[in-house]
Amino acid sequence: MRLSCISSTKIRSTRGYIIREGFSIIELIVAMAIIGILATVLIPYIWKTADNKARELGVINAVRAIQTALEIYAEKQTSAPFYPTDLDIITATVNSLASLVSPAIVNPFNNKRYLTAAYKKDDSTFYLGVEPETETIIPGLILYKVSPDGRSYTLTPYGANATVIRNLILTGNR
Q1: Residue 32 region by backbone torsions, left for phi larger than 0, else alpha for psi between -120 and 50, else beta
Q2: How far apart are CA 98 and CA 101, in angstroms?
Q3: Where along the chain do its domains lie?
Q4: CA gap 60, 139 in Å, rounded
Q5: 138 and 124 in contact (C-beta within 8 Å)?
Q6: Distance between CA atoms of residues 115 and 73, nearest Å
Q7: Please, what is the average pLDDT of the chain?
Q8: Whole-number pLDDT of residue 166
Q9: What 3-state class would DSSP assign to 152?
């Protein structure tokens, strides 16, 4: 008995018919073409998805760094408001929230610094990591809402599709 490789082509004769085992060159070319088409379609999608996930991880790290800075800031306060309620306290370079985070953290979707590129929407809502006067939710935005008395806050990060990053709405209170 003779052993042969699975991929080899073997010709044997049975009652005058020739039976070929293996794939023809045409079948192999068609299979390679199908694989090539699938790769062409799927690789950019996979690449974009992986890139967006990496950027969302950057937003997650940024929101946690901002939460740490908020808690450090609150520890230094002797009375309410414990958390910043004014845009100048967030964005100033000295004695502010921005001075507690080094190096400066940036929005991975637009490269704006979170604690210097900020917009105060109303008395208690701040958009972090955006151009001033930005009224819309954009990818990478961190929404900072503080209570009017400055005793509690909520940080809401937004991901690649300008949707809330699930399970990561951070809060704090005194």
Answers
A1: alpha
A2: 6
A3: 25-173
A4: 12
A5: no
A6: 13
A7: 85
A8: 81
A9: strand
